[in-house]
Amino acid sequence: MASSNIRYGEGVTREIGMDLQNMGARNVCLMTDRNLSVLPPVKTVLESLAQHGVNHKVYDEVRVEPTDASFKEAIAFARKDSFDVYVAVGGGSVIDTCKAANLYASHPEAEFLDFVNAPIGKGKPVTGVLKPLIAVPTTAGTGSETTGVAIFDFEELKAKTGIASRAIKPTLGMVDPLHTLHMPERVAANSGFDVLCHSLESYTALPYNMRKPCPPNPINRPAYQGSNPISDVWSRHALNVVAKYIKRAVRDPEDLEARSSMHLASVFAGIGFGNAGVHLCHGMSYPIAGNVKTYRAKGYNVDHPVVPHGLSVVLTSPAVFNFTAPMCPERHLEAAEILGADVSRVKREDAGPLLADTLRQFLYDLQVENGLSAVGYTKDDVPDLVKGTIPQERVTKLSPREHTEEDLTHLFEASLKLY
Amino acid sequence: MASSNIRYGEGVTREIGMDLQNMGARNVCLMTDRNLSVLPPVKTVLESLAQHGVNHKVYDEVRVEPTDASFKEAIAFARKDSFDVYVAVGGGSVIDTCKAANLYASHPEAEFLDFVNAPIGKGKPVTGVLKPLIAVPTTAGTGSETTGVAIFDFEELKAKTGIASRAIKPTLGMVDPLHTLHMPERVAANSGFDVLCHSLESYTALPYNMRKPCPPNPINRPAYQGSNPISDVWSRHALNVVAKYIKRAVRDPEDLEARSSMHLASVFAGIGFGNAGVHLCHGMSYPIAGNVKTYRAKGYNVDHPVVPHGLSVVLTSPAVFNFTAPMCPERHLEAAEILGADVSRVKREDAGPLLADTLRQFLYDLQVENGLSAVGYTKDDVPDLVKGTIPQERVTKLSPREHTEEDLTHLFEASLKLY
């Protein structure tokens, strides 16, 4: 159970130049995306770098919802120079891309699939030493600043996969609540749903001492190790903060208390799921995002169809937790209660339906699209979505309940409409 | 806000040989104390080392409640060899001694006072690279496996002081609840009180954004940074676990659930106070331990008078929290409620007396000696105790309430008798 270095506070981003100077950085790679490159978070970082005379180059070509191709472009940029520190300013897409760039630039001989999760890639352990990476998250969602995971769309498979190794965990996350004031309403909602599902999935993940296989040698154990007494603390705490603040944070971009609480919740949930893992909502979200046809999410300024990560995750959550509840009804009831349900007279066997209903009401209140059908899928697409979920074993095997392809089919079908 | 690598589970200690093999260790320094050297925790480690062919040397001369002299002996042992990994098997005394040995062996030119906290030592920042240290805690108390702190008695000053740097934080803590079954009843009680005070003090410590001075350069900020949203989660959670399990853990050494819960609570509280810091109970405990006359604690097999650390900390707790409550009454009320008090009709201004009474009852139930007078102090000793507290600024300045020498005098006097 490992955790993360986080510095939190309004305005901490202004200190980054001093940190880089303290580290003796001579050639910094600053990664971000086009939209952010003209917004205050990046400007603040650049001003701090200039003020402390830190030499740097900017890469602002990160793709929102990155792909293998966009990862490779960032890697090529990093490999053709010799950076000694990386700085990622952005959401999960930017931080994940920067992790990959740092990893492959530190392993110049490695081929792209070497470190990608098996069975899609070779899942080789990271042996070299990476450069320090400072992550400055500008969304309150992925928790990528706390984790050793980098996710991308593998385009030829139409599914998301990733790289998971403690070695790519950022050296420091600078969590500055002022940045989240720049999130559009739907970005705040969708990234908040990612936090919601990180909490719920990690809290209900298969317990660490029931996960199989159980490699006798510690070096072979996965980063996602199942729910455990340390991750539980974070997952539950994050869920409480989400329940209290997400609606305010979505509705009022100026509500600094709510937005900064959600920012911290994303860190808390990140530490939780970074240890425990996520399961079915995330496993099923990868083909939902990967098979996108023409859906263009509101509030996202991108040049390609996209189902935002948080939305792709949350749309199956009522069906998923209805399905998993029988394995640990107490935790599902506790989650429903935290999200506002009255559980005083509810039987254990009703934990699933209750949490599902609570989530549906929660999503309805937050004006979430009405299920997978609203983002362009029909019943005919379900076989492809199931097929895209099968290789996501890294996460789906952490589901507390074993499942067949038929179960997955049922879960996708039950998620076509929510209300 | 940094955290720690912890591996938790019954029997995890048996894996240590594999870990050392994975790390390529060629010459391991195993530190422990005489009593432990013949008990199962050390035996288990030695068997695992033998099984995996790990070359090692044993140093079992660690002093319970270490001194500058005993630190120096361990440092000399480490310096005359060239160890590539350190393993500490024991309570806080062993882990702290091993941290110091690793630090000074990695800085062969350093003089002893170089890294000791100012104003007693020079408080120089650690610049070199230390060897990995694996800590295997056998008491549920100090949380030393999670912190960058090493405490010792500075004999000529008759006070405890220490070394504080993130650089000495163990690489990995192996938390094996089976080890805590070997703790005698009073060791379980006193180490549990340390956990209790870590939680209470870190939860009520001065908030991180009110601490002064506030060094503009992050490199100059102290390890103990004041209470903050991350440490709060740990401190409060640890307090809940202590409240639920300490009595069972003390009374029944075979109660694995209670003892292993207290073991985890010590980790949780360690992560909390390792970030936030402790304040008056700890600051005042150092002269209480350092000025010991003839008191010999029950259940401790040592050849010198000793007030065990946890006891020296908890004896002033009723007076201290009565004094600090006006600065953050809500947190003191919350703590009293967690410890079993009915707070439903209590006014904010009564938070201090209520928490003090709750603590007195708690200590009485656990058969704690009746105040400082029961460990050999009279009113005449108070000026020395106050004098010994003054240099403990590293912690006392984290008190939420400013205090004069007169205040300290009053706190010691109020702690002579508890019941």
From TrEMBL, chains A, B:
GO terms for cellular component: mitochondrion. Keywords: Mitochondrion, Oxidoreductase, Transit peptide. It holds the Pfam family ADH_Fe_C. Residues 4-177 form the Alcohol dehydrogenase iron-type/glycerol dehydrogenase GldA domain. Its main location: mitochondrion. It is an enzyme of class 1 (oxidoreductase). Belongs to the iron-containing alcohol dehydrogenase family. Hydroxyacid-oxoacid transhydrogenase subfamily. This is Hydroxyacid-oxoacid transhydrogenase, mitochondrial. It comes from Merluccius polli (Benguela hake).
